[in-house]
Amino acid sequence: MMDVLIYKKIFFSGLPIWILLAGGLIVLLVDAFIKNNREIVFYLGLISFAVSIAFVFKRWVTSDFVPVDFLTFDRLSYFFILLVMLTGFLSLLNSHGYLKSGINDDDEVILTTMPAAFVSLIIFCVVGQIFLFASDHLIVNFIGLECLSLGTYALVGSRRQDARSNEAAIKYYVTGSLASAVILYGIVLLYASYGTLRLDELAQIKSASSLGPVFPRVAMSLILVGFFFKVSLVPFHFWTPDVYEGAPTPVTGFMTSAVKIASFAFLIRLLNSIHFFGDQKLVSILAFLAGLTMVIGNLGALVQDNLKRMLAYSSIAHAGYILLGMVACYEGSVFNVSLAMPVLFYLLTYLFSVLGAFGVLSVMIWDKKEACQLSDLTGMGYTRPVLSFVFCVFLFSLLGFPPTAGFLGKYSLFSLAIQKGYLGLAILGMVTSVISAAYYIRPLVYLYFKGEPGRAPITLVTFPAMFALVFCFLMVLYLGLIPTTYLKMAFVALGILS
Amino acid sequence: MHHPYLPVLLIIVLGGLFAGVFLLASSLIGPKKGTKSKLSPYECGLKPVGNARERLDVKFSLVAMLFILFDIETVFLFPWAVLYRDFIKSGLGLFMAIEMGIFLFILAVGLVYVWRKKALDWR
Question: pTM value?
Fold first, then answer.
């Protein structure tokens, strides 16, 4: 009867996930039987996200942390579950205008999509993300990754009439499947070396593999390469600008935040368990990649005229900062997860800044297309003063300017790096941050100083989209000014405080 | 007590017998009106000789995807059915039945969705 108890625990610990899953299925059923269901499925999706977020909070307060088979519901998992659910919730809010803009007043089809499929795909992606990092078994992790990736491929191509969206979907699908295959091959080699795929068992292994030291090393490299592709670290970043540009704007926001958060959450879990790489080489490779990513991401963003491409390169650069934080968590060749607080906090601040920025881009429409060129912003600072101001705040937060959340995120990352002796990398990070100011401030110039107001794009600020923007705006300021609660939350997630 | 692999041998013999009898019977008493397509080698309905880079209707991949989906359902059902007696013995019978019920329900939702979305219609 012991087993039944364990399953009961899985049921109650995973309640947020099951609620979300049920919401996704109901959305599909509604789509099957009710026509013109755009608003119904949208609010159904929102409700299921809201209810599961409430349950995550409840479990966060009361959970008793009994490890269960395959799924690990510790506070670290709940922290990241909260993060990805928030990204799903906010991306859904952001996409309200996108789902609505199927047909304009002249009965012309402008941006066609299938609302129910879109909503359920976002939900299933989030469920996949949770399985990616809330499991101790590499096969379950991989299934979660695939669930996430397949959903994202479809979301990228969800604007079916648009050739660029289709192109982006195919590009992402072909390269992304290759990355998944590489990860799977790494997992297979790991199994060949040690005969287990449980992360907690792999963490206990002290002796070398009977197949020699090369096998596990190759395995780890393959897994890491695959995930570096998913989080678009240099030199695996080439797909990012094209895909981010072609995808519908709300989806791009979802990809920059959710996919990265889930992948980094998994990497924290993986590197925390697998020590047997056992030499400094891995750390120096990671450090090198972090530096390279910061430089190339920020330099690439300098020359972009398309806002989505610019934010794509900026997200590459941010992946570099996050990796810098992970590198700083290494003590010798052992990953010390209790140092990872800056990484967690940075992901939290990054989430709100980037989703806010993409939220602003999502509501702008120019000539029945997305308004994503820099020149589209001309004069918007006068026709849409509030929206422009909010956009600037999000950009400043991404840049890491003091009163905003991004500043504290970067500050804690760099100070950790300096404490741990990565002075050079930290300085490189700061220098590239300064460089990044050049492209984060360019939109401001277009908004306020390039003259003739009246040419600005139409904005479709629906109530849900406005809610998302206000929420992100308040969070960016709140995290920047009074971060104590959330810093404590990150510490609790790592088991330092209780 | 018979040999444990005797049933396998019986199936092989019976299978061979049936196949042989049917082939023989159809060649003896079946009508023989050969047309060009009937006489060509069987290739799932495709022309056996031609350009290998012919374009295929995208509907084929839709059907293939749906097939794999429901095929995997059966793959999961078989081991579950085989082990079900052990589940009952260890007191997990009802629980496992509910589990499989949930699994089938999720798949049924998928089936209803593709059905209502007319993904099964060949238009």
Answer: 0.87
